[in-house]
């Protein structure tokens, strides 16, 4: 029983690696021939049943599995994972959660899993699958938590202090070339946003709430005072505090976008539904989305192809069409 479960987990992991690490869509036949775990299917029917179950399981797990034409010349249906939707949103870590992530990271860096990933990608390449070098799946082991490189020791001191309710003192600089100044802070928590890590707390020197990027905190972090003296205020939203400091403000300009039923999950997360609507004979709904920084929303919408259509404003619609035509030209060439 244990060997069957292990085989299934390995097969699903291999499938996720394949669908995340390739350009475009991969056909079911290519998956059968190149992804470890499917080649032993005794018949086409057995493979079809297995693959259908695996697809449903990935979708049940919330993995955004998409279907589409392999190319403009080949109408065969293929599969891929939308990497933008697959990526986790920024998260706020409690000390216990951060410790769990650190343990998981060490596990991922283990030789066994690194070797498994290397083997999966090499098999894909050997089978002729076009592996995307920007897919985020490397043939070398990752080092440290994402966005934390060089600040591991700082986090290692901050987390126990937050957990113990103890103030900390550290050198900090406002910018990469600014001089260090000593700050004494009552730490409330650590937040990740836009790929960076931030400490949020009450700055005793400024007598105000402050946010500190971990990469700008010197290594000489030390607890000060007694444990239990620091208490995070009730109802404080650490993420909102960081967002006010580092996030780009909303433009206030709303775009209306039609999205197909059950598709474009990442767009749905950042938009507000206006109501159901049919477009081109397909069921869907219209959502309103803040246009935000120039280019970012157009790139996001274009990534969903025919599953997301800009209704207004016209400038955004044209920008998305330009991106889609450019992508179609690359496929044709």
UniProtKB/TrEMBL annotation:
Pfam families for the chain: WCX, WYL
UniProt-listed InterPro entries: CBASS_pafABC_assoc_protein (IPR051534), WCX_dom (IPR057727), WYL_dom (IPR026881)
Domain WCX: start-end pairs: 253-328
Domain of life: Bacteria
Residue ranges of every copy of the WYL domain listed in the record: 154-218
Alphabetical list of PROSITE patterns matching this protein: WYL
PANTHER family: PROTEIN PAFB (PTHR34580:SF3), PTHR34580
Protein name: Protein PafB
Species lineage: Bacteria, Bacillati, Actinomycetota, Actinomycetes, Mycobacteriales
Gene transcribed to yield this protein: pafB
């Amino acid at each position: 029983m244990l060997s069957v479960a292990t085989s299934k987990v390995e097969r699903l992991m291999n499938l996720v690696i394949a669908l995340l690490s390739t350009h475009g869509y991969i056909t079911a036949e290519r998956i059968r021939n190149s992804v470890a775990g499917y080649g032993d299917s005794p018949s086409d029917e057995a493979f079809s049943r297995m693959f259908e179950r695996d697809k449903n399981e990935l979708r049940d797990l919330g993995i955004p599995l998409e279907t589409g034409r392999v190319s403009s010349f080949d109408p065969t249906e293929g599969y891929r994972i939308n990497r933008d939707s697959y990526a986790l949103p920024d998260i706020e870590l409690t000390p216990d959660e951060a410790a769990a992530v650190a343990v998981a990271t060490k596990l991922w860096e283990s030789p066994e899993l690194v070797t498994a990933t290397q083997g999966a990608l090499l098999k894909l390449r050997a089978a002729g699958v076009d592996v995307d070098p920007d897919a985020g799946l490397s043939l070398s082991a990752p080092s440290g938590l994402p966005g934390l490189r060089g600040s591991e020791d700082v986090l290692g001191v901050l987390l126990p202090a937050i957990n113990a309710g103890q103030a900390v003192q550290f050198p900090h600089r406002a910018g990469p070339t600014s001089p260090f100044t000593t700050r004494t802070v009552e730490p409330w928590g650590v937040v990740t946003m836009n790929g960076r890590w931030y400490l949020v707390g009450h700055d005793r020197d400024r007598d105000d709430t402050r946010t500190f990027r971990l990469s700008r905190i010197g290594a000489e972090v030390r607890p000060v005072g007694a444990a239990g003296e620091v208490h995070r205020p009730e109802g404080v939203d650490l993420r909102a505090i960081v967002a006010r400091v580092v996030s780009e403000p909303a433009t206030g300009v709303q775009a209306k976008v039609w999205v197909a039923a059950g598709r474009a999950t990442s767009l749905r997360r950042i938009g507000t539904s206006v109501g159901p609507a049919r477009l081109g004979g397909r069921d869907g709904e219209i959502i309103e989305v803040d246009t935000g920084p120039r280019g970012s929303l157009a790139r996001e919408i274009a990534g969903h192809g025919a599953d997301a259509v800009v209704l207004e404003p016209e400038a955004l619609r044209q920008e998305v069409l330009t991106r889609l035509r450019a992508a179609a030209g690359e496929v044709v060439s």
